[in-house]
Amino acid sequence: MKPKLSQNNVPRNTIILATIVTALLGAFRLVLLLVLVWVAALVFIVIYQYSSTRKPASNFVCLDCATVHQELACPKCGSKLKKMYSRDNKYGV
């Protein structure tokens, strides 16, 4: 069973959009705006990555292949056997 890849890849989409805007602004030689687009894109990606790692979510560990994940079924092997996972060992593994 192949794991499904998410189409919602915000950093990749941001870079693609910034590249398209760069090409358009580069055609008109608007270098200042070109630099501002990349600064804004990088700031957005950093803020998005920081906020996505801060969201509290339950982690599970697959009992078949020991993969830590948040899905109902293991993304690596597809098994639904799982156990709660915690880094500080308050519960689960």
Notes on the protein architecture:
- Helices cover about 45% and strands about 10% of the residues.
- With about 90 residues, it is mainly alpha-helical.
- It has a three-stranded antiparallel β-sheet, with no helix packed on it.
- A hairpin with a 5-residue loop joins strand 1 (about 60) and strand 2.
- Helix 1 packs antiparallel against helix 2 (about 30-55).
- The chain starts with 9 loop residues before the first helix and ends in an 8-residue tail after the last strand.
- About 5% of the residues are buried.
Summarize the structure.
With 93 residues, this protein is mostly helical. Helices cover 45% and strands 11% of the residues. The model has no long low-confidence stretch (mean pLDDT 81).
Q: How are the strands ordered across the major sheet?
A: 2-1-3
Tally of extended strands?
3
Report the C-alpha radius of gyration, rounded.
Answer: 20 Å
Going by helix content, strand content and strand pairing, the class is mainly alpha
**What is the strand content?**
5-15%
Unreliable residue runs: none
- Spell the H/E element sequence: HHEEE
Apparent shape? elongated
Mean pLDDT rating: 81
What's the N-to-C terminus distance?
Answer: 26 Å
Q: What is the number of helical segments per DSSP (H or I, 4+ residues)?
A: 2
Biggest β-sheet description: 3 strands, antiparallel
Helical coverage, percent range: 40-55%
Features:
93 residues; mainly alpha; three-stranded antiparallel beta sheet; 3 strands; elongated
Q: What secondary-structure arrangement, pairings included, does this model have?
A:
Blueprint: H1 10-27, H2 31-54, E1 59-62, E2 68-69, E3 82-85
